[in-house]
Amino acid sequence: MQKVAIVTGANRGLGFETCRQLAKRDIQVILTSRDEAQGKAAVEKLQAEGLEVVSHPLDVTSAESIEHLTQFIRNQFGRLDILVNNAGIARDPLGDPESSIFNTKVSTIHETMETNLHGPLLLCQALIPLMKEHQYGRVVNVSSGAGQLSDMNTGFPAYRMSKTALNALTRIFANELEGTNILVNSVCPGWVRTDMGGPNATRSVEQGVETIVWLATLPDDGPTSGFFRDRQPIDW
Ligand SMILES: NC(=O)c1ccc[n+]([C@@H]2O[C@H](COP(=O)([O-])OP(=O)(O)OC[C@H]3O[C@@H](n4cnc5c(N)ncnc54)[C@H](OP(=O)(O)O)[C@@H]3O)[C@@H](O)[C@H]2O)c1
After folding, report:
1. Quick one: which of 31, 43, 197, 198 has the fewest CB in 10 Å?
2. Which residue has the higher pLDDT, 52 or 19?
3. pLDDT tens digit sequence for 203-224
4. With 90 as the cut, is the pLDDT of residue 180 above it?
């Protein structure tokens, strides 16, 4: 049976490359993006490479949008095997006044949490039940070293807190799913040359998605409840 994967925020950056790499492994990929036209354009690029990818709109901050996607997956494929919670925003980057905790607005924390934490929460709640129906699932939460409590620092506080919270989400879901063959992990892709990472980042998108794809395709005896970079466990 061909596996079905969904990747959020996949019209560009790490999400787009994750779709490419999963499709190359003969997985049916649903590339989602909040702008429908951008999603379609991204899918056309991958289809031109001979890859099996379909697009579907998804704004991870909208419960209605998540409900539409869930219905689409049910009707079209009847199963879901892989969920990559990749969509993310950083509204308080270095150089921005809000990058100091003394200036951080609660509204910025709210907005960041909505996308980086509440979105993955709602998607897990909606889609893991589908995984349970076939006793198989791989959930990859694209986090960041910026969320590591062991290395917590100043700079972009709203983003940092959202990724720390996302890591907590990973642990909580993984704990409730123990023994179900649904493996839930967090990943730090490293500093990657995307719109978010900027042109000076040290890694290419291909390098950035390597561990994301590994976690998305773990064997049944693979790890769960972990936080990984370069396929190695890292501190929370
Ligand atoms: N790049 C790095 O160095 C780095 C390092 C550590 C972690 N990460 C994490 O990796 C993930 C991907 O980052 P990236 O570098 O590829 O960033 P990016 O190039 O800025 O892409 C972010 C993606 O998220 C989407 N998105 C934002 N809000 C959304 C929403 N409400 N609903 C659906 N999609 C939404 C964007 O869609 P639009 O095009 O519509 O805005 C875009 O497709 C993020 O979670 C980020 O925190 C990145």
Report:
1. 198
2. 19
3. 999 999 999 999 999 999 999 9
4. yes
In whole numbers, what is the pLDDT of the chain averaged over residues? Answer: 97
**Model pTM above 0.85:** yes
Predicted local confidence at residue 24, as pLDDT: 98
Q: Tell the residue nearest (CA) to atom 45 of ligand 1.
A: 88
Question: What secondary structure, in 3-state letters, does the chain show?
Answer: CCCEEEECCCCCHHHHHHHHHHHHCCCEEEEEECCHHHHHHHHHHHHHCCCCEEEEECCCCCHHHHHHHHHHHHHHCCCCCEEEECCCCCCCCCCCHHHCCCCCCHHHHHHHHHHHHHHHHHHHHHHHHHHHHCCCEEEEEECCHHHCHHHCCCCCHHHHHHHHHHHHHHHHHHHHCCCCCEEEEEECCCCECCCCCCCCCCECHHHHHHHHHHHHCCCCCCCCCCEEECCEECCC
CATH assignment of the domain containing 210: 3.40.50.720
Instruction: For ligand 1, pick from 30, 196, 200, 210 the residue to mutate: most ligand atoms within 8 Å of CB.
Output: 196
Looking at the 3D structure of the chain, how many domains does it have?
1
**Does the CB atom of residue 87 touch ligand 1 within 6 A?**
yes
The residue segments making up the domain with residue 124 are: 4-233
- Model confidence over 6-41: pLDDT tens digits? 999 999 999 999 999 999 999 999 999 999 999 999
Cα–ligand 1 centroid distance for 21 (angstroms): 17
Does residue 57 have its Cβ closer than 6 Å to ligand 1?
no
